[in-house]
Specification:
The structure is a homodimer of 119-residue chains.
Chain A (H helix, E strand, L loop, with lengths): L1 H53 L7 H17 L4 H23 L14
Helix pairs in contact in A: 1-3, 2-3
Protein name (chains A, B): chorismate mutase
Enzyme class (chains A, B): isomerase
GO molecular function, one term (chains A, B): chorismate mutase activity
Chain lengths: 119, 119
């Protein structure tokens, strides 16, 4: 009986490992897609940063950020995704972008989140 | 001359505002796409969490994380995107997922990053 249970357990573990491998392959694909989208997003914020620096506009824009958060929370609910996490995610991204806009405005050249066409 | 300069400046500001509006529309689209992909990514990690909990596997897996970081840094370089930021991003996500896996393993029911079919 002991050995039968062990075989069943081994089968169970083997199935779990296979499922884990499949899930991780999907996660890797999602991460690749997200990284490419983030790269494209930052190409846009890079241009926003240059515009803001050229027109001496402040790096942060609290009204815009509030609108973005409200919108992403709604989208997250549509996607059956935790809206608090979507907000945390946007805050993380926006903090990085502002840090970067400030570096651009202060003339730092090695602050790039994306590699510009010139470099 | 003074008024001519002012009109040129006004045109310049109007063009900048229009460009800013366009860039923000693109950023909003990228964010929507990213949120939907994150939702799908977390549906997969949710299943990983349940598997790990069922088989008493640890929530964190340092080898897997090292591989993910190395892979995302390479992808980021391909996308002409800052690899340090890609790594920061993954660390942020993984930290949330581990926090969540631990909550699942400890039997917390309100820890969901995604809404399950039952709820």
């Amino acid at each position: 009986m002991g050995s039968e249970t062990t075989t069943a357990e081994q089968d169970d573990v083997a199935r779990a490992r296979e499922l884990l491998r499949d899930l991780r392959a999907s996660i890797d694909n999602f991460d690749a897609a997200i990284v490419y989208l983030l790269a494209e997003r930052f190409r846009a914020t890079e241009q926003v940063g240059r515009l803001k620096a050229a027109h001496k506009l402040p790096a942060a824009d609290p009204t815009r950020e509030r609108e973005q958060i409200a919108r992403l929370r709604t989208l997250a609910k549509d996607a059956k995704f935790n809206p608090d996490f979507a907000e945390k995610f946007l805050n993380f991204i926006v903090k990085e972008v502002i840090r970067h806009h400030e570096a651009v405005a202060s003339g730092s050249t090695d602050a790039g989140l994306v590699q510009s066409a010139q470099s």
